[in-house]
Amino acid sequence: MGKMSLKVGIVGLRGIGNQHASCHMADELAELVAVCDVVKERADEAAEKHGVQSYGSVQEMLAAHPDLDIVDVCTGGDENGGWHYQPTMEALTAGKHVLVEKPISNDITEAREMVALAQKQDRYLGCNLNHFFTEPADEAAQLIADGKVGEQIYCLHRMGFVGGEGSYGGPMGNANAKDFPYFHVKAFLAHPFSIMRHFCGDITHIQAFLSRPGFRQAASDPMLSVNSIHCRFASGAVGYLFSQRGDATMGYGGWWSVEVGGARGTFIIENCVEKLIFQPAPGMGGAADPAKLNLGEAPKAVETNSGETDFNVTFGHRIHAFLEDVTNDVPKHKLRASGRDALASLEYTFATIESYENDGALVHPNALPSLERAPGVE
Question: Pairing mode, if any, of strands 6-11 and 70-73?
Fold first, then answer.
């Protein structure tokens, strides 16, 4: 007999919350039983659509459903993470596993407390860092595992919405972004930093330059939407992250590209879900003889198109992975896209802000909490 499906309650029923609800409804590992939102009408609408119960607070939902296994936190708030802390802490205190949207918080102290409480309560805390739950990312990870990349030398990552001066619509007017210069930095960098760390490990050094183009300045838009970040990994590899929020239209790689180059080969992922390119280094694995290559030539690349162009499939993939890890009772330190992983991306984000505020000074991100393993567990 298979395991029972996990009972899920969702907090926050705007766009992302409703997307999560649809994913849980479609997943055989989940049973969506409740939704809640401080704006009760939003919860009522989602409840009617999915045939579940609705509530106006987390405490009401927990009291009515003591058998909930998972609380999925999809609230927004200042800088899109300002309301993640309270429902997460309430759910963890009640002994529930939690999946929280990114960024884990907009406040680094809160994020550290969330991760610490999950560890204290021995509960799973995951974050919706969904950009590496894709076929190209899985294939890239396999290239690394198979030794085809070898010693990592560099990582280049670019991520940003298509745009420019002609498409700029003025300062974002919603309360989550209005008058928050670091809105883009906090709301957006969780993803690229998590990708870079997923493939290349912990970041130990950060130097950042943040800016905003002239058309934003002319509109008195405070958002620091252009982010140029140089970093070094614990392995010794170097990295560069460029992110922007519709200020320009990037060429190669579309809206999203990551390139990891090593002593044996280099891979590139384009547009997150779409394409993987692997470029073997000369002389490796049957690649071209270095002596026979002209200046600027490289061995023939292998390109794999996934056939997928819909970025939204990543939500279902990521949510299923969390449900799978909880169902299988994996060791806490092996949880995919964990709260600790999300904390890492936020530590790098706050190091970025510190560097910018100190004229591009070199910053060492705050050390992460130790990875606790149960005795005898690898």
Answer: parallel
